Amino acid sequence: MFTLPESWVWDFWLADDGDRYHLFFLYASRALHEPDRRHYRASIGHAVSSDLQEWTRVTDALVRSDAPAFDDLATWTGSVVQHPDGTWFLFYTGSTLTPAGNVQTIGYATSDDLMTWDKSPTNPVLRADGEWYEVLADGQWHDEAFRDPWVFPDPDGDGWHMLITARARTGPADDRGVVGHAWSPDLRTWELRPPLSEPGRGFGQLEVMQVEVVDGSPVLLFSCLATDMSAAGVASGATGGVWATPAASLLGPYDVADAHQATDDSLYSGRLVRRRSDGRWVLLAFHHSGSDGGFVGGVSDPVPVRWDGRRMELLEPVPLVD
């Protein structure tokens, strides 16, 4: 488990350089006292490990930029991939506060060694466009939700794809969550495309997405709390947490109405990684809710998982942490 005594740790993502695992995580000082205030103070920390369990913190990856900038409030969740030329790309969410509310856009930084990162001068490279995706001016949600970029190579070698936490422009306000989509030929320039799922499937937003082939089947992983589900979803008794759903392919389409809870809300922001020691898929998540319902923070140890064709099963329990 990875925790910081002085800071809350929550959303995270991983990279494997073949020798060490790299953990990139959001953190903010516990001196804020109220956990909900952490979002507007988030920086991106960095730790390394040889086994996904014992972590050593190293120099932070990114902090917010000076105003005015797309990330002058906070730096939020992203993903890391390596270009064929060896350059590492860290895609992340930039958050800025406008008079109308919080606006999220997507940028990137590059590194030769995963340790020192330089933000691109062309940031942001993607934003909600108002054609396919809801914007703040629509007045339907508490912020302009366009974040959590998950980047992966095209299965047929045709560039790169990005999945994005986004919202459609139609449907009830609490049921517009969709899998946003963008494509790039080179990781530097991006073309926004229509969503890969439909609204009206029970979710106001689908956070921290990831898609992988697990036990031979494409699987979409995302997270959503009950507070961000539709009224119908809450009425069904769902509590929120990490969700999983079968996919037709790595590029969908995704019917998130078929999603099931892989965990309850004690865990959030689940990430799948193939463990190098035995080739097995394992799940890590951050500890979200304690036994008293309060926020916890801190990244769990890895838990082996399997996919039975329709559902994801955790093969070991994850101990509760308060």
From TrEMBL:
A Pfam family it matches: Glyco_hydro_32N
Key words of the record: Glycosidase, Hydrolase
Swiss-Prot/TrEMBL GO biological process terms: carbohydrate metabolic process
InterPro entries: Fructan_Metab_Enzymes, Glyco_hydro_32, Glyco_hydro_32_N, Glyco_hydro_beta-prop_sf
Assigned protein family: Belongs to the glycosyl hydrolase 32 family.
Keyword check for RNA-binding: no
Protein name in UniProt: Glycosyl hydrolase family 32 N-terminal domain-containing protein
This protein's record includes keyword Chloroplast: no
Tree of life domain: Bacteria
GO MF entries: hydrolase activity, hydrolyzing O-glycosyl compounds
Domain Glycosyl hydrolase family 32 N-terminal: 19-224
Matches recorded under Gene3D superfamilies: Glycosyl hydrolase domain, family 43
